[in-house]
Amino acid sequence: MWGTLLIGFYLARDTAYRWLTRMSSPLARLAVVFFLSFCGLVFLSNYVISIKVLRSRIHSSGADLVVATEYVQQGTVHHSGAGIVPQKPEEYELIRFQEPFTSATQGTQHYSLVEYLPESTHLFPHTEKVTSYLLPAKPTDTVLPEIINLNGYRFDVVTIPESRARLLRRIYQDGAVFIPYGSMSHLWANGFMKRYIIRILNPTAENVSRQEQTLRTIARLDKKRMSIVSSGKLIEQLDKMESTQYMVRVGVTVGISTIICLLLTSISSLEFRQNRYVYALIGSFGISRVMLFLSFIVENTLLVALGFASSLAAVWGIRDFITDVLYKSPNINLSLWELEADIRTFCLAFGICVLVSSIPIAIAATRPIGKELK
Predict the structure, then answer these.
(1) For the chain, how far is it from start to end, CA to CA, in angstroms?
(2) What kind and span of H or E run contains 245?
(3) What does 193-214 look like in DSSP terms, one character per residue?
């Protein structure tokens, strides 16, 4: 045991001496691993950022929403009873609005008039006297009193601050006037629209598409005039894009690792050739060839790990530059966790690289000592 420790200490000191006397060898391996890994990670971060930008745009436009609009003909009774879409709180949140075929005005600005039902009051700011609300075309941050005109009549509303208008802004991007149920019973004689807003709790492509198909089936069977809008196709395309990008990212990682493997193998072979007489002498004193082989594996592992860790630190240090300047996405945050799959692939590939680069050394270590010393 003690002899093995002494041999290990001697091989470690010999490795350190070689690094000091020929610094180009360890520096070359460090530089190759660092630079190629760094360039690869910066390039692969573009895929992460592009997916995040696209996903953000889809979700901001209502990726978790399925909006069904039913057109109700003239003479139909206007009521707040259950519609054609059932309540399923374990799968989605259902919000219902009703819209007469008329509009309200504020100055020269025209707004859709929307009647909200009692179960939707949580979407609006709490006010004591006024129960009608204005989602202005230009967002505001405060609750302000306003006056709305409707067919020659005037009534009071308060503005909805943008912090409370998240779902409402998705549906009514140009603004709307919201009135409580039953407040204007004379507006519905000429027909109206029922709008069902389904906010899916788990908005995967499968769940959104299934809900959309269910609504279309209900509309067909009940012979309803209904239009349905959802982001199911966009989410499905996004999932396919992520799958395709993953294959490309794996290919880039494997390609970079192959180049590093070839360079490490070449450098290790040259390193061993320069020291083959010394190691032959060491072997003649009874030192195991396995120890010599393991020393090269440890050396390459240490250099590769140090180079790759340095590239990760460099990417982390310039992550803001990558998002803000390089890829022009200042609103996106990049973290190493989002490159986890690429980092894991790099680590696996580098482990294989170290083993492959040690094959020439293993072959040379099996040669008879006499052939090296003659």
Answers:
(1) 32
(2) helix 232-274
(3) EEEEEEEESS--HHHHHHHHHH
Strands 109-116 and 176-180: parallel
Record the pTM.
Answer: 0.64
Which stretches within the chain are classed as H helix? 2-21, 24-60, 166-171, 205-221, 232-274, 276-284, 289-317, 319-321, 340-357, 359-365, 369-373
Structure tokens at 284: 């003649």
* Coil, strand or helix at 99: strand
CB 207 within 8 A of CB 48: no
Q: Give residue 177's pLDDT band: very low, low, confident or very high (50, 70, 90).
A: very high
Q: Are 112 and 232 in contact (CB under 8 A)?
A: no
Angle at 351 between CA 346 and CA 355, to 5 degrees: 140
Q: Which residues have C-beta within 8 Å of that of residue 86, sequence separation ≥ 6?
A: none
Residue of 260, 266, 267, 295 lying closest to 365 (CA atoms): 295
Are the C-beta atoms of 177 and 134 separated by less than 8 Å? Answer: yes
Q: Would you call 178 helix, strand, or coil by DSSP?
A: strand
Q: Is 158 left (phi over 0), alpha (psi -120 to 50) or beta?
A: beta
| Residue 209 neighbours by CB under 8 Å, 6+ apart | 230, 232, 233, 236
Do 162 and 177 meet the contact criterion of CB atoms below 8 Å apart? no
Residue bearing tokens 């309540």: 87
For residue 136, what pLDDT is reported? 92
